[in-house]
Amino acid sequence: QVQLVESGGGSVQAGGSLRLSCVIRGFTYGSYCMGWFRRAQGKEREEVASIDAYGGTSYAGSVKGRFTISHDSAENTLYLQILNLKPEDAAMYYCAADYIPCAADSWYRQLARYWGPGTQVTVSS
Predict the structure, then answer these.
(1) Cβ neighbours of 120 (radius 10 Å)
(2) Which of 84, 85, 104, 112 would staple 96 via disulfide (CB 3.0–4.6 Å)?
């Protein structure tokens, strides 16, 4: 059984930084896509960043240069380093994973099979 659990969220001042973690249990590594999504209050969930089995990464335009996604397979943990937080970054952040390419239509449509419960990020100005 695959389980994802996020941590590292909190309340931070604008300009600050956070590192979100997602521990992934029961996932058999091979070809996969993992990523971070967020849902701000009153808005639809959006993809923030993704990483594939070959280390290829992709970022939403609004976070490029400030967010870094990484994966430590030895620790079974997916990370999202966030720098220079902005008020518009405030959201519930979710990690997701699936045994599909990141270019797959189901990933694009946010239909990954495995999701964590989320961790809240609050940004004060």
Answers:
(1) 12
(2) 112
pLDDT in tens, 26-85: 998 789 999 999 999 999 999 999 999 999 999 999 999 999 999 999 999 999 999 999
| Dihedrals phi, psi of 87, to nearest 5 degrees | -55, -35
Q: Which residues contact 93 (CB under 8 A, 6 or more apart)?
A: 6, 9, 20, 36, 37, 38, 48, 80, 118, 119, 120, 121
Encoded tokens for 34: 């993992």
Q: What is the CA radius of gyration of the chain?
A: 14
Residue bearing tokens 């996604």: 69
Report helix, strand or coil for 5: strand
